[in-house]
Amino acid sequence: MASLTVPPVPTWPRQDAIDLHRAFKGFGCDSTTVINILAHRDATQRALIQQEYRAIFNQDLSRRIASELSGHHKRAMLLWILDPASRDATILKQALTGDVTDLRAATEVICSRTPSQLQILRQTYRARFGCYVEHDVTERTSGDHQRLLLSYLAIPRYEGPEADPSLAALDARELHKAGERRLGTDERAFIRVFSERGWAHMAAVARAYHHMYARPLEAAVKGETSGNFGGALQVPRRKVELKSSERQQQDD
């Protein structure tokens, strides 16, 4: 869904609702029109479209989509019309308690969100599904992977753009001591640093690690960890790279 774009000009939710209804009518659904409308509207616009659709046609748009679309298109559109927190909660619930457990999807959601986003997600999860996300995580995960995910859900982290170079150097030294410097890996140190530090700080840690040990932190993580736990530690790194790329584009 990251490739979906929002038009630069204002849209008319009422007209969108009418056009969607026309696409649903008749023999077979005009899925191309449905996708073209919804995929190019932001969260606020999608919420207004749903309000207009309910007001005009006395029916929930989500139910109509569920009855008219199928397969991947149906799943994508049902997720896309949700607000971000509800979408994350739904993806997480399906990943943890669906017919097939998808720990990769669950990990991606938990480890790529900010603390404030995770706080809203936890509240939304509880409201929508009547249980705590921590309970489902505990039921479906284990070991260091479980401890990392629960730490992400529980521990607040600084979300600002600033980082302390001296503290970043200390964390880089701790990660090196817990991994490449010793026989075996102290996973607790990796969990502490990755779950307690924000994106800007982790970017500084990666720079410090490379400067101090002439080796990328990414390579150290891959060499010292594995499985779901190792994969989870790679999610913040990708987020840091994305943030850095976005910042460079803004500067340009």
UniProtKB/TrEMBL annotation:
Gene Ontology MF annotations: calcium ion binding; calcium-dependent phospholipid binding; phosphatidylserine binding
UniProt keyword tRNA-binding present: no
Secretion signal, residue range per the UniProt entry: none
Region (Disordered): 225-252
Superkingdom as given in the UniProt entry: Eukaryota
GO BP terms in the entry: response to cold; response to heat; response to salt stress; response to water deprivation
Keywords for this protein: Annexin, Calcium, Calcium/phospholipid-binding, Repeat
Composition skew (Basic and acidic residues), residue ranges: 238-252
GO cellular component: cytoplasm; plasma membrane
PANTHER family, per the entry: ANNEXIN
Protein name: Annexin
Organism, scientific name: Eragrostis curvula
